[in-house]
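As a warm-up, study this chain.
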Amino acid sequence: MATKEAILDAATGVFLAQGFAAASMDQIRQAAGVSNGSLYHHFPTKAALADALYAHTLRGFHAQMFAAIGPRTSAQNGVKGLIRAYVQWVLAHPGPARLLHDLRAGGALTAGGEWAGTNAEGFGRLAQWVATQVQAGQMRDLPFGLWMALVFAPVMALTRQWVTDPAPVVPPKVRAALEHAAWMAVAPLPPS
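Now compare it with the structure written out below.
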């Protein structure tokens, strides 16, 4: 494993166990088994490490999410698929999912850090897919921020609960309800 990846993996464990504020760079260095020089060469500050870790984790999350929306995916299948992918990723990666919530909520991220570019890239890709569906008349025309809130707010709120369990379970009935609610929130309105 490359040094940078070893540090990111070690930081994940230390941040999850200690919390960002209590974690030290020395704890992360020891867990990664690297020298001070290697650690600070890749990540000069704990904030820079948190930014990079958030971006790294976010890229894995985005990869699973975007697999649900291809160019030929219908609006309904895409919206439901996004929610399905979101839940599946959280269940498969409860630690990293908790880390995304904790680092963001705990003020560990710096404005304009690496994570911001990764987030903007993901939002841009999703906004483009939404715009294509709206243009085709397959989805309601809503401001993108509102679209995001309507589709993702319920599952994001529940994620905070799920990630407190080391082995979270989301019953199929709950998954289906979340998928249906997300789609109904943005589905085209019937003609009046």
